[in-house]
Amino acid sequence: QSPYGLATWAGVDLWTDAHWQLIEQSFGHLARIGADLVHIPVLQRSEFGNVDDAMVRWSGDPATDNVELDFSLMDRYLDIVARTIGQPRVLSVNIMQGAGGGERGRGHDVMENVTTVPFSGREDGVDLTERRHLYEILAREVVARMRARGWEDSLFWGHFWDTPPQPELFDEMAGHAPDVFWTRAGHIAGGIPDRLRVQSEVFPSRWARGERPGGAIVALNPRRHSPTHNLEGYYPPFSFRLLPERAVYSGYDGFGRMGADYGEQWGEGNNIRGGVPYFGTYNLLWADPDGVDAGQRFEILREGKQEAEAMRFLKLALDSGELPDDLARRVAELLDRRIGETSYVPAYFFHFNSVVLHDHPQGWQRRSWQLFQAAAEVAQAMDRSDPGRRPGLR
Question: How far apart are the C-alpha atoms of 87 and 91, rounded to whole Å?
């Protein structure tokens, strides 16, 4: 969700009552799809389109400890998150730019200061390498706020890409909050820092094969060149039905880096060297001053997620070894056939042609009916053997 994209798209002023109402509507839709990743832009000019704004403000003298932080925007935003999607699995408080800056800026832009002070209202020329105490203050107060909500297990720092521009922040923040790790999006270039625990990746890696740090979360990034699946905003809507199932089938925890309501705000004001890794899709929702509506791709993606959950339910039941032999055989055949009937759908947009565009949705109603019918039969069989039990759901 993007408060900045939503305000721009709907033509309302930031942080007004009208804006907050739209934010809650966006999260209401995201709750229906199980969204569990929330970004809090703390740095200005980040990839998240916040330009000169940030969700944490500061006042006082940054050269001393006489600094007061204003979390009122972040707190109200997270209150909405709590009312709609609940506690997120990942709450990324973004204090690192995606990549380094310098004279090789994107186009005519030049990064003014790679180590931008991470609070709106910054003092010109303040360099974080000379203001380490600001990180300590921020870490202490953020951790305290998350602990008060009972969300300390969801807290991460973010949000760099392939190679962190400020790797010294890993040790710095570990000293202030040793139990808080980091999030990243991109490839696996530059290795995997020890402090990394959340990865939204373009290419499959050893993380997706289970060789990941304890407690790590890895999601498929459905953008171009992803061998698992490739989604752009101009993809035929049916492709969004396949994404959740392919992500699960390929060993991912889910999919990420897909915009709900960014519109054209994604990357606005950002002048990081190398540009901004774009979303596969900038928006799955549609907004105007009167409200936020779910788009066709969103609804199809939601249905695809429901089917992926049913598929996972069947796989858990099958792996339990508790199904009758005949039912277990039919479930195994259904799962193999289901992925086989869609495996020819290409992973790259450029492989599409008129025949594939016409043919690849064929039979989806039959596949859906067979899937849910099998899930109902398995649920009844599990109830008969152990009433009230559902594999993996309790």
Answer: 9
> Distance between CA 383 and CA 386 in Å, rounded?
5
Q: Which of 162, 142, 155, 160 is nearest to 74 (CA)?
A: 142
| Helix 325-340, helix 296-320: angle, nearest 10 | 140
205 or 370, greater pLDDT: 370
List, as one string, the DSSP characters of 84-97. Answer: HT-S-SEEEEE-S-
Tell me how far apart the alpha carbons of residues 18 and 291 are, in angstroms, rounded to a whole number: 9
User: Residue 112 — very low, low, confident or very high, per pLDDT cuts 50/70/90?
Assistant: very low
- Evaluate whether 349 touches 230 at the Cβ level (below 8 Å): yes
Nearest to 167 by CA among 188, 141, 190: 190
pLDDT for 218 = 82
Cis peptide before 176 (omega within 30 of 0): no
Report the candidate in 339, 330, 343, 342 with the shortest Cα–Cα distance to residue 374.
330
pTM of the model: 0.88
Distance CA 331, CA 339 (A): 13
| Amino acid letter, residue 247 | A
Cβ pair 82, 146 in contact under 8 A: no
> 10 Å Cβ neighbour count for 336?
10
> 8 with 287: CB under 8 angstroms?
no
Radius of gyration of the chain from Cα atoms? 22
How many Å apart are CA 34 and CA 44, to the nearest integer?
A: 28
Q: What is the pLDDT of residue 58?
A: 82
For residues 133 and 231, which has the higher predicted lDDT (pLDDT)?
Answer: 133
Residue 224 burial by CB count (10 A; 0-12/13-18/19+): exposed, middle or buried?
Answer: middle
* Residues 228, 3: Cα–Cα separation, whole Å: 30
- Helix, strand or coil, per DSSP, at residue 248: helix
Report how far residue 87's alpha carbon sits from residue 153's, in angstroms, rounded to the nearest whole number.
10
23 within 8 A of 3, measured Cβ to Cβ: yes
Backbone angles phi, psi at 387, to 5 degrees: -50, 135
Other beta carbons less than 10 A from residue 25's beta carbon: 19
N-term to C-term CA, the chain:
29
Q: What is the pLDDT of residue 96?
A: 85
